[in-house]
């Protein structure tokens, strides 16, 4: 059954009325059970791809700060795990809730608005989040192992200046990451919208075909009774 949104007075008598949560669950069920992967890949693979992109961003940024602090292998596993996994988990959940669910129930008619929302989430958690938190984690290891002369922890101004110097040193890299994250999030959002429209058109065509068959069968039965 294809999902439609209508005003209460326009609903057919035999319509099944759903709230937003039920409608989202219904759409998820259709996507999961859809036979052709090529039709639904943006929903099945899109969110994991966005999570992977966020992981790439987090690991790249974390490695940049680690090189600047000359940490070598000190704390590499723990900081890489935190900066690689956390953005992926957050962006996967955020995109699903604030973009994919909106597409499922056609809440926003503006595709550009959805893409801007997706890009903001992706850049925010895939680039800005690790840029802010990766230095904090790596400064701790640098202080512990004495790999870089850091300002005193109470010297917030000096710490901020050092952070900004490290950020400026990776400016080109960070700009490239921002463009990469923005592009992939906008692309996946567009393909999700396109995929859902394609599914709905196929379902509408199937429903029309079934209705035509039922009508033809009914007409044949009436003719048989008359004869």
TrEMBL record:
The entry's keywords: Membrane, Mitochondrion, Transmembrane, Transmembrane helix
Name of the protein in question: Uncharacterized protein isoform X1
Pfam short name (any one): TMEM126
Main location: mitochondrion
Keyword Transmembrane: yes
InterPro entries: TMEM126
Gene Ontology BP annotations: mitochondrial respiratory chain complex I assembly
Topology class, membrane: Multi-pass membrane protein
One GO term describing the cellular component: mitochondrial membrane
Organism classification: Eukaryota, Metazoa, Ecdysozoa, Arthropoda, Hexapoda
Keyword Transit peptide assigned: no
Annotated TM spans: 41-61, 81-101, 121-141
Subcellular location: Mitochondrion membrane
